[in-house]
């Protein structure tokens, strides 16, 4: 019996190694050009990994008893039915808004129209946030607000980090011919070039580096998180994004635990008209790398955001909390701290400086 168990473990290990080394999902290796910039980064620790600005533990009290709970959908961890969402048409994107317009695709995928630019942030549009469909749970809604082929041309894709729920191989494959440019944190260029995207279309950023397109500035700002695909950990950088034009200023938190970087960003680039803030997939077992909803609201105050929109929820089960907890808890805290909040359904337009959606649609 012992020999049988050992043989089974060996077979599983071999299959896993073969899968990681042959599947395109896991991306590519760094070019010499990228490695030079990575090794010169002040955010690189010299041991082959990027680091956070403050002590950050991936695990803050792991409990073995929680493992079985990840394999069940009970206790309201997923919705009981299809979530409401707006169906979009090609005409929707042809009616160009005068103010920045944000359309939520669920989780952290956001389509931003601003100053005649089409910007897609973390466009994870696939069904399962994992390298293989058997390794993760399905999207709450099977359909997107609009099919990928009916999306308009995209001037820029912004990526925050390389986890599967933010950088999806299948989505990039379907989008890449529509996209003019990709802005990514250090190291992620290797994944995109491995997936057939020309290196000329990709620009890598360290924290606090910026670039402009048609007068709109894009700044890669810190986040408190980690990265990794396959067996690799922290060999690519993670970030949040500041998007500033002459008239508007928008912030996207990416994935992040609460930390001092939010005040730093607010002092350097705030105030912000609107902020999309991570709020979901949290747990006390990994409290340094994802915010609790109450911390999300405080972080929005730190970055000096006038209005916030909770993201990183409403599409996938990646934690153990009830699927409505992120929005319920953040709304409660926002009321306590007098923070304005937008709560659109998936596919609903959020127009900056206009009336913001506020229906309790998840109820």
Automatic annotation (TrEMBL):
Metallo-beta-lactamase domain residues: 118-313
GO cellular component: cytoplasm
Short name of one Pfam family: Lactamase_B_2
Molecular functions per Gene Ontology: N-acylphosphatidylethanolamine-specific phospholipase D activity; zinc ion binding
InterPro entries for this protein: Metallo-B-lactamas, NAPE-PLD, RibonucZ/Hydroxyglut_hydro
Matching PANTHER family: N-ACYL-PHOSPHATIDYLETHANOLAMINE-HYDROLYZING PHOSPHOLIPASE D
Name of the molecule in the record: Metallo-beta-lactamase domain-containing protein
Organism: Seonamhaeicola marinus
Source lineage: Bacteria, Pseudomonadati, Bacteroidota, Flavobacteriia, Flavobacteriales
């Amino acid at each position: 019996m012992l020999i049988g168990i050992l043989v089974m473990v060996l077979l599983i290990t071999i299959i896993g190694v073969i899968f990681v080394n042959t599947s395109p999902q896991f991306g590519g290796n760094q070019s010499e050009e990228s490695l030079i910039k990575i090794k010169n980064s002040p955010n690189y620790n010299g041991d082959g990994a990027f680091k956070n600005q403050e002590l950050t533990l991936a695990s803050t009290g792991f409990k073995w008893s929680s493992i079985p709970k990840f394999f069940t959908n009970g206790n309201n961890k997923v919705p009981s039915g299809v979530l409401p969402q707006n169906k979009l048409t090609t005409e929707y994107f042809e009616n160009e808004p005068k103010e920045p317009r944000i359309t939520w695709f669920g989780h952290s995928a956001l389509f931003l129209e601003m100053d005649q630019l089409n910007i897609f942030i973390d466009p994870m549009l696939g069904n399962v946030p994992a390298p293989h469909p058997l390794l993760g749970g399905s999207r709450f809604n099977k359909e997107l607000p609009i099919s990928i082929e009916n999306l308009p041309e995209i001037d820029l894709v912004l990526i925050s980090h390389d986890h599967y729920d933010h950088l999806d191989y299948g989505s990039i494959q379907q989008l890449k011919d529509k996209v003019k440019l990709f802005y990514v944190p250090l190291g992620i260029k290797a994944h995109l070039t491995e997936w057939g995207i020309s290196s000329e279309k990709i620009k890598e950023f360290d924290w606090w580096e910026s670039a402009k397109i048609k007068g709109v500035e894009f700044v890669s700002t810190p986040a408190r998180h980690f990265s990794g695909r396959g067996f690799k950990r922290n060999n690519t950088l993670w970030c949040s994004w500041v998007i500033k034009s002459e008239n508007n200023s928008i912030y996207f938190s990416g994935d992040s635990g609460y930390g001092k970087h939010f005040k730093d960003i607010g002092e350097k680039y705030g105030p912000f008209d609107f902020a999309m803030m991570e709020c979901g997939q949290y747990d006390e077992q990994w409290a340094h790398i994802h915010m609790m909803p109450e911390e999300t609201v405080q972080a929005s105050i730190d970055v000096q955001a006038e209005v916030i929109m909770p993201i990183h929820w409403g599409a996938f089960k990646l934690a153990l909390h009830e699927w409505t907890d992120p929005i319920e808890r953040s709304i409660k805290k926002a009321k306590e701290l007098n923070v304005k909040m937008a709560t659109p359904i998936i596919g609903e337009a959020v127009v900056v400086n206009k009336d913001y959606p506020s229906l309790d649609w998840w109820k």
